[in-house]
Amino acid sequence: MTTNPDSLVFSADEVTRTLDGWQDGEGSLVERLAIAMAAAIRRGELSAGWRLPPERDLAAALAVGRNTVAGAYRKLKAMSIVGRRQGSGTWIEPAFDGGASREQVVGVGGHKLTVLDVAGERGRIDLAAALPTAPPTLDTMPWTGDTRDLVGHTGYWPLGYPPLRRAVAALFRRRGLPTTENDVLITSGAQQAIALIAFELCRPGDAVAIEDPTFPGAIDAFRRVDARVVPLSMDTVGPVDSYAAALRSAQARALYVMTTVHNPTGRMLTHEQRLEVIRAARQHSTLIVEDETLAELTYAGAPPPLAAIAPPRSVITVGSLSKIYWGGLRIGWIRAAQPVIDRLGRLKTIWDLSSSAPSQQLAVELLKQHDKLRQQRVSELRSRSATLLELLAEHLGDWHVTEPRGGLFVWARLPHGSATELAVRGAENGVAVLPGPATSPVGRFDDHVRISFVREPDTLAEGISRLARAWRDIRDRYAK
Fold first, then answer.
1. pTM listed for this prediction
2. Which pLDDT value is given to residue 141?
């Protein structure tokens, strides 16, 4: 790499501002500093191609010894996040190479961590993303939709295709939440739903409380509107305590939660815990945004949405058909009070005028078989979850694995080492997993990985075999 001009050098103060709370957590100061810097690079606060400050300058700014900074730089280099050369300093490696245009790149730092190879090239096994294939029913189901709705219409329904809005409303009513089509906005997937809510609710600097860890797309959506993201720690104290404490101290405008089949942990809140979340939000006048994207993938059946037991207009609910049916539909929704739906609908019109009309009509047809298709998908996922747990126990028995209550992922803790480094080594071995810092608003959980189990059993077996090879390289180094 050609070294950068002096104008592309981060000052020690600039780097320090991205490392708030870096000394919290476990491990040596070197490990904690390296993890915090890797997270800042992943968040884009420290840009690829720029040089980091000299060790002595950063050590003085952080009030630590120079050896601490030198050790952190060496650890980042070992993870291929930075480059170092005598006389040229330390720089952040470029984030992309020429083949990245087909791929979604996540992870930490300048090293490319591919989690979605839509072209299916290079034999990579993707256990980071969760992309269920379309159900076989799609090929054989009778088409009863009235195509005149499409042929005789412009195809633009800013709030959504009316029959689909009614069908989604019926789903909510079946789960105990009175809903009409006027309470529903159809979106192009749950990601657009979250982004619309973030744009409508937040102004720069507004506080939004988000579980830590959480869905990476939600972190991105709220950061995109310059909201101040307040992490709710879910690993050191009970999550309900975290909600109450964060809302009390941050005066958060909104609380983004997944109470049913949490991504990535797979946990579910009890009924009493849900009531405590609602009480805490009500006490601090905080609007709840509940993401139910995985809610119907529970093994025991989904409880009612929070909006069914919360005061009116205190909850906005997000849902999707991507994980039950097929992500290619790009069908999601927002359920909220009608004035909120009207505002979000006007905003969506600015973004894309309307979601795809054929996809919406196809979604109506699939919803006619919803119970059957949901049961088939849950049965399939439950079997594959069991397969993945068995594979992890066989090949990676020293890991601590949280058994999910449903959904698409296993959340696993490493006994030592860096999940970011494991993801890099995994990519080199032809398998992608999501390192924990990608799920954290503050770059924590570098001792965790999220592993998807949507793939076929044979593919899961090969993927875990590759991951185990990557892990052995790291484990053996720690054993020396």
1. 0.78
2. 58
